[in-house]
Automatic annotation (TrEMBL), chain A:
Taxonomic lineage of the native organism: Bacteria, Bacillati, Actinomycetota, Actinomycetes, Streptosporangiales
Domain Acyl-CoA dehydrogenase/oxidase C-terminal: 221-378
Organism: Thermomonospora curvata (strain ATCC 19995 / DSM 43183 / JCM 3096 / KCTC 9072 / NBRC 15933 / NCIMB 10081 / Henssen B9)
Gene Ontology MF: a single term: oxidoreductase activity, acting on the CH-CH group of donors
Record keyword Metal-binding present: no
Domain Acyl-CoA dehydrogenase/oxidase N-terminal: 12-111
Protein name listed in UniProt: Acyl-CoA dehydrogenase domain protein
Positions of the Acyl-CoA oxidase/dehydrogenase middle domain: 115-209
UniProtKB/TrEMBL annotation, chain B:
Gene3D superfamilies the record matches: Acyl-CoA dehydrogenase/oxidase, N-terminal domain (1.10.540.10), Butyryl-CoA Dehydrogenase, subunit A, domain 3 (1.20.140.10)
Domain of life: Bacteria
PANTHER family: ACYL-COA DEHYDROGENASE, ACYL-COA DEHYDROGENASE FADE28
Protein name (record): Acyl-CoA dehydrogenase domain protein
Organism in which the protein naturally occurs: Thermomonospora curvata (strain ATCC 19995 / DSM 43183 / JCM 3096 / KCTC 9072 / NBRC 15933 / NCIMB 10081 / Henssen B9)
GO MF terms, alphabetically ordered: acyl-CoA dehydrogenase activity; flavin adenine dinucleotide binding
Length: 397, 367
């Protein structure tokens, strides 16, 4: 306890020093963010020199509060969710010193946006089946293939990429992880329109994309291991956001219930209260998970949080449409758009209902996550595998 | 609501858990507990004496100035998790948590000495189903003499002292009645590990330990503490059901395979795990809010009851189903857990009652 109090005091001093040297009212946004990163106040749990101070993760909230109170600009984490939630922890865990120094700062400030080049038309839940090839030509890794469901690719500068480097090896062992420059002429991004009418995702075609060896993350053939670390972080990021009570989809429904008494019906009240309890318990579960993470690394427990989040998000958005009655028959806008960020709360109920259907598919389907929980947490026998030790090139596709 | 409440287990709590678990593992085998259903003795008196005497559990929530350990709801909640895990037939919840809280809140801490020492136990004489916010069931007083019966009281059979809410013209009073002065009729209970009884106090000598608002406050605090911490017992029940089912499905073979490898069953167990971990967060929050005397404690208590009560029942039902035929038998302990879980679901207010209470607390009116 005393140790924590001292750390908080020290952080307060550091924040005051930053604010004294860079008055938020008179400092350019980017300049302030860079200074904040250099002061170790970007993510305090990262090492010194890389935006952090090696402190427990939960102390970040204290820094964020102080800076928000002083009117300091933040890095708008929603605009670079994949960079912050997935690329950064993976680079931290597997990157060389040069890679960490090169990539983490502009990633955190939002100067460089990231996307995730994992899924392929033939490799979604079975990610290790992916067919995008990376071949070493003596100077560069030359990448050819197609990725899909790439959110934010149209505004990303960098992509985390898994590609096959050894077709002779069994599928999990023949992949390598790369950092791909999305401005390379061989990268073509095409919008992929979804159920909502919007195109927040993309297809990405990779044709002779040249990646230098210093943009390989981890060893050759270690791609599955590195990707797994990314996916664990992804599930924590999706399932475990630090939100206040009624901060998510439940808040929207509860707010409508309070403002519009004419919509209230007994059957809906029973469902609303049950879901209110489940949403609040899910929030506390996420909070507990983050308190656990503060001590170590993300484990498969993130998968459990993500499962709950997907289910609740779908049930709540369904309830909202029923609650709205006649109004629930209408839809805001079918015009094709390419949003910068995905926000559920700013849109109408129909959008929320349709978009929530993706929550049990993206970032690991609920079926795959249940397998992960059953096998890695509960230690139940794995699914029978026919592809385990077969060279990738010999697998039926 | 406080955002800085710690939902993890502290080292002290883990060491409390270890000592309770190792004692229960030695002395509270399910084969022994089941005797209660056949009218036998499960050694529950000796078990309680060991828990109270050797581990000092009876004194846990008694303030230090009254001879207790002055521990908090956090430690008590961990004890309850373990008691739930063993469906232990001891009066910890009814005496050391609920009755003790009533006496502390009534300002009658000076009466707690014999309870803290494990020499006596007490029970609050209201139906186990009483919710913290409903009307308080009470007997009446006719010219100073008590009259009436408290029904379905948990912990009454083993109690030395009864704390009896009494409705008088001047308002509610809380009376202390020696158990030997009451007529206590044991009932055949759905959960014989926490047997209920009807308590007729007509004509019994009594002295008031609190009157009016103080009495009301004491009873409500006791019920709310019971509801908040019962969630940890439910968590313990659910955890045992999950652990036992997972262990069984790792050895049971059918169709030439380990049953736990079938995806349909793996997914059910994964869902059960998610539910148990969620119940843990809810139960921990209720205990932490209580320990910190956080303003959010009524919400925390109702939230935990609304969630954990159903979670324990579902876990016990899944445990029986996934064990197949053996799960339905008297020889397998699963039925003890289902009976405890189902009775617990009604205790201190059903999930529905807590939903209604939450609707008031968080401003989501039904109409």
């Amino acid at each position: 306890m005393t140790g924590t109090e001292e750390m908080i005091k020290d952080l307060t001093r550091r924040v005051e020093k930053l604010l004294a040297e860079y008055d938020p009212a008179r400092t350019d946004r980017l300049e302030f963010l860079r200074a904040r990163f250099d002061a170790g106040l970007a993510w305090v749990h990262f090492p010194e020199g890389l935006g952090g101070l090696g402190l427990p993760r939960e102390l970040q909230a204290h820094v964020d509060r102080l800076l928000a109170k002083a009117g300091a600009p933040d890095n708008d984490p929603r605009r670079n969710g994949i960079g912050l939630g997935m690329a950064a922890p993976t680079i931290l865990a597997y990157g060389t010193e040069e890679q960490k120094k090169r990539f983490l700062r502009p990633l955190w400030t939002g100067e460089e946006i990231w996307c995730q080049l994992f899924s392929e038309p033939g490799a979604g839940s079975d990610l290790a089946a992916l067919a995008t090839r990376a071949e070493w030509d003596g100077e560069y890794w030359v990448v050819n293939g197609q990725k899909v469901w790439t959110s934010g690719a149209h505004k990303a500068h960098w992509g985390i990429l898994v590609a096959r480097t050894d077709p002779e090896a069994p599928k999990h062992r023949g992949m390598t992880y790369f950092l791909c420059d999305m401005r390379d002429p061989g990268v073509e991004v095409r919008p992929l329109r979804q159920i909502t009418g919007e195109a927040e995702f993309n297809e990405v075609f990779l044709t002779d994309v040249r990646i230098p060896d210093e943009h390989r993350l981890g060893e050759r053939g270690q791609g599955w291991q590195v990707a797994t670390a990314t996916l664990m972080n992804e599930r924590v990021a999706i399932g475990g956001g630090d939100i206040p009570r009624e901060g998510g989809m439940i808040g929207v429904v509860a707010d409508t219930w309070r403002r519009r008494p004419e919509l209230r019906r007994p059957d809906l009240h029973a469902r609303l209260m049950r879901l209110w309890v489940e949403a609040e318990v899910a929030r506390l579960t996420g909070k507990r998970l983050r308190q656990k993470l503060a001590a170590g690394q993300p484990g498969p427990e993130g998968s459990a949080s993500k499962l709950t989040f997907a289910r609740l998000s779908q049930q709540l958005s369904g309830l909202e449409i029923e609650l709205l009655g006649e109004e629930g028959l209408r839809y805001g806008d079918w015009t094709m758009k390419r949003p910068d960020i995905v926000v559920f709360t700013g849109k109408d109920a129909g959008y929320r209902y349709l978009r929530a259907k993706g929550n049990s598919i993206e970032g690991g389907t609920s079926e795959i996550l249940r397998n992960i929980v059953a096998e890695r947490v509960l230690g139940l026998p794995p699914e029978p595998r026919v592809d385990k030790n077969v060279p990738w090139k010999d697998l039926p596709r | 609501m406080s955002e800085d409440l710690n939902l993890l287990y502290t080292d002290v709590e883990e060491s409390v858990r270890d000592s309770v678990r190792s004692l229960l593992a030695k002395r509270c085998a399910p084969e022994k507990v089941v005797a209660l259903y056949d009218g036998g003795d499960a050694g529950q008196r000796e078990l309680w004496q060991a828990l109270a005497g050797e581990l000092g559990l009876a004194a846990l929530l008694v303030p230090e100035e009254h001879g207790g350990a002055g521990a908090s709801a956090r430690e008590a909640s961990v004890v309850l998790e373990e008691l739930g895990r063993f469906v232990a037939p001891v009066p910890f919840l009814t005496s050391a948590v609920v009755a003790t809280t009533a006496l502390v809140e009534a300002g009658a801490g000076n009466l707690l000495g014999p309870l803290a020492a494990g020499e006596q136990t007490a029970a609050l004489a209201v139906p186990l189903t009483t919710s913290p916010d409903g009307p308080i069931p009470a007997v009446t007083a006719d010219g100073g003499a008590l009259q009436g019966t408290a029904t379905s009281v948990a912990g009454a059979l083993e109690a030395d002292v009864l704390l009896v809410p009494v409705r008088t013209e001047g308002g509610l009073q809380l009376h202390r009645v020696p158990a030997e002065a009451a007529r206590i009729t044991p009932l055949t209970s759905l959960d014989m590990t926490r047997q209920i009884a009807d308590v007729d106090v007509t004509g019994a000598p009594a002295d008031a330990v609190a009157e009016g608002e103080a009495a009301e406050r004491a009873v409500r605090a006791a019920l709310e503490t019971g509801a908040a911490l019962m969630a940890s017992e439910q968590l313990g029940v659910a955890q045992w059901c999950l652990d036992t089912t997972v262990a069984y499905l790792k050895v049971r073979r059918q169709f030439g395979r380990i049953v736990g490898g079938f995806q349909a069953l793996k997914h059910r167990l994964a869902d059960l795990y998610v539910m148990v971990e969620s119940a843990r967060a809810a139960a921990r929050y209720a205990a932490a809010a209580l320990a910190a005397d956080d303003p959010d404690r009524p919400v925390a208590a109702s939230l935990a009851q609304a969630y954990c009560a159903d979670a324990a029942v579902l876990a016990a039902e899944e445990c029986i189903q996934l064990h197949g035929g053996i799960g339905m038998t008297w020889e397998h302990p699963a039925h003890l857990y289902l009976k405890r879980a189902k009775a617990d679901q009604l205790a201190f207010g059903t999930p529905g009652a807590h939903h209604a209470r939450l609707a008031d607390l968080v401003d989501l009116p039904a109409a």
